[in-house]
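YM 10:42: procollagen galactosyltransferase sequence, as discussed on the call
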Amino acid sequence: SFELCICPRCFLPVRGYFSEERWNPESSLLAPRVLLALICRNSEHSLPYFLGTIERLNYPKDRMALWVATDHNEDNTTAILRDWLVKVQKLYHYVEWRPKEEPSYEDEEGPKDWIDPRYEHVMKLRQAALESAREMWADYFMVDCDNLLTNSNVLRGLMKQNKTIIAPMLESRAAYSNFWCGMTSQGYYKRTPAYIPVRKQIRKGCFAVPMVHSTFLIDLRKEASRQLAFHPPHPEYSWAFDDIIVFAYSARMAEVQMFVCNKETYGYFPVPLRSHNTLQDEVDSFLHTVLEVNVRNAPVMPSKYISVPRKQPDKMGFDEVFVINLQRRTDRRERMLRALHEQEIACKVVNAVDGKAMNVSEIHALGIHMLPGYSDPYHGRPLTKGELGCFLSHYNIWKEIVERSLDTSLVIEDDLRFEVFFKRRLMNLMSEVEREGLDWDLIYIGRKRMQVAHPEKAVPNIHNLVEADYSYWTLGYMISLQGAQKLLKAEPLKRILPVDEFLPIMYNKHPVSDYMEQFETRDLLAFSAEPLLVYPTHYTGDPGYISDTETSTVWDNEKIRTDWDRARSGKSHEQAEISTEAQNSDVLQSPLDSTARDEL
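YM 10:58: structure's back
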């Protein structure tokens, strides 16, 4: 017999037979050098948030160089950039600062007008930054000063793809993004079937495209990158004199393929404005981008090195702005309060009635009875406790309006997103309503239009207003004292149904006559903004969609569950496309709404 003796030291890594031959593991490589090129003009409004995202990039600052230029400003951009650079310059490997103050270009219609001398100046600046990157053997990372890179790992992620030119796909309102999938023979944008699946992330990955712009990385270690240039244009160039098209042509002639990557959400940016737009339009457009980040992401925070002016909230001319929120939905309350604060809107938060927490005895004690014969149009079910709580929340606000004699109020729920230029468009609408002396009780600012067989009647002499037909949702509406009085006078608790079914009954536009006949007086004067000013944050089936109205129990029986949310109730689906014949095309359109509808 024998014994097996195992020595633990025998299994240690052998670094050398003799002690002199032992070594430590090799250290990791330093991160590649990167030059971050920033060219800013009239960016005072965006710099606090933009520079905050730059500071939070997950990349060693001592391996980054900042190349910053600004010119032709009508605001405080130069001073903000200078102060920021003074505070952060020690953190970065190198800083180059190129300020230039000049009057506006000749023949320039306004700050958003891009004439040839302006294009050429920007191209020369980008080329100077590119040459600086080459001199310091660094990669070139270009970011426009209104692009919000909310994904702090974006730079490392792009580098991993090992492409000469690669851009992170940026989100914006509508279908606009920072890449093209098609280009005409003259160098202009071309619609292709490939675009939407990439833009909507139906297809995920990194895709070869003919154009990227706004934010992209150039790997200057690649041999072919030596032929890339922003200026001067290639000798054979004959397309439009536009900086992004000139560079795309340069890449084509150098046989360098551009790529866009949409594997993750990398950031957001605003839709470019037209030449006639003002700086205030640009400020409001960027603000909308900040609000959109807030819908499904952590809020974008400003730079810790820049002081942001204090907000001055007001009620937009209303006597009160009510925000309905369930106390247990703290995330929605925080998001909504932040969105309103960013827009400088003062509000009163109203604790919603939590129908799920009410028992049958509490319901009967309020004298509540369901409207005889009512059933949900999609599922044939009775009223849910969630719908009951929603109705009571609005009902309590109507009571407060009457008790406080509030002439005009705005009521909004906590699960909405604001359209671009929301505050100005709403105030303009109310100003015209008052100027024309319109007799009104309720004006929807967000709804789901259910009557889509024919157009709604446009209101004469008032922009963006129609007479409301059968509609769902109570996302947001303006209500007058007279309107609240009419709704209370109907004594709806004695024959209750969902609040968004009750309102069309009161303005005599509900398709079910049996419901309407149970309310003798149906003279509510109801209108709607057109186009709408708010929309839901989520629709049925969206990631993160939660319904507090449909997922509960039947209003008077706690044993019958109503989890129709998971069956994707049609009520919460996005508005279906309205046919050309039924669109409200006769409504007067304001310049702001024309700008809001631009999809470039």
